[in-house]
Amino acid sequence: MNDVTEPVSATLAERAKLALGKRNLVFIGLMGAGKSAIGRLTAQALGVPFIDSDHEIERVSRMTISELFAAYGEEEFRALEARVLKRLLRSGPRVVSTGGGAYINERSRRQIKKGGVTVWLNAELDVLWERVSKRDTRPLLKTENPKQTLENLMRARYPIYAEADLTVLSRDVKKEMIVEEVLTAIADRQKAQGHD
Ligand SMILES: Nc1ncnc2c1ncn2[C@@H]1O[C@H](COP(=O)(O)OP(=O)(O)OP(=O)(O)O)[C@@H](O)[C@H]1O
Ligand SMILES: O=C(O)C1=C[C@@H](O)[C@@H](O)[C@H](O)C1
Ligand SMILES: [Mg+2]
Question: Could you confirm whether the keyword Transmembrane appears in this record (predicted)?
């Protein structure tokens, strides 16, 4: 026997996969919360496809998110995002990481709620700021005081993200640890509902 530990427990991943069934797992939360990074690793652990809605939007439009915002404005972007999400959530199981504002849009939120189990990656301002300040690809943060903008977004959005089925605190620990917490939350939710 070797002593190399698995990064994410296979048994836990199997339990979570069973609990998920055919439903999608949808990550929501603010910019920098880790939806894309944690979503990808969670999909790998579950052995299901991973799709990032921001990437899918960029692929179908052949434009970057920044270009889309600049050319058509936020409202058009949200309409495109809702259409893309509807298609992505049609069949499962998949892990879908959404853009930070998707769950805030009423139409997208309805689709997300219908299309899967939602996990909110909750994070404190300083954690988010440390992560997002490294890149300038987020059009909503191109303001005079982007940290203040981020804080304003937290205030406005956190009560809405809190409607998620599950919440996991995203923080600066190993990403695998966050993935384990996500998988545990999925498996435990099933148990709490008496299906295990
Ligand atoms: N637990 C973690 N520890 C350290 N860094 C992390 C952790 N989780 C995510 N990150 C890093 O933080 C940055 C932002 O993460 P990510 O792009 O996944 O956020 P996001 O929620 O998808 O943001 P957006 O809404 O802008 O797409 C990435 O560089 C990612 O590698
Ligand atoms: O928080 C938001 O509203 C956004 C987050 C990003 O993922 C992108 O979807 C876009 O920059 C908008
Ligand atoms: Mg992302």
Answer: no
Probe ligand 2: pick from 65, 84, 135, 161, max atoms within 8 Å of CB?
65
Going from N- to C-terminal start, the domains of the chain cover 20-169
Cβ atoms of residues 96 and 27 within 8 Å:
yes
DSSP symbol at 139: G
Which listed ligand is nearest to 141 at the C-alpha? 2
Model pLDDT for residues 173-195, shown as the tens digit of each residue = 999 999 999 999 999 986 666 55
pTM of the model: 0.94
180 lines ligand 1 (CB under 6 A): no
Question: Regarding the domain delimited by 20-169, which CATH topology (the fold level of the hierarchy) does it fall under?
Answer: Rossmann fold (3.40.50)
CA 19-20-25 angle, 5° bins: 145
CA angle 89, 92, 95 (to 5 degrees): 75
Contact 65, 98 (CB under 8 A): no
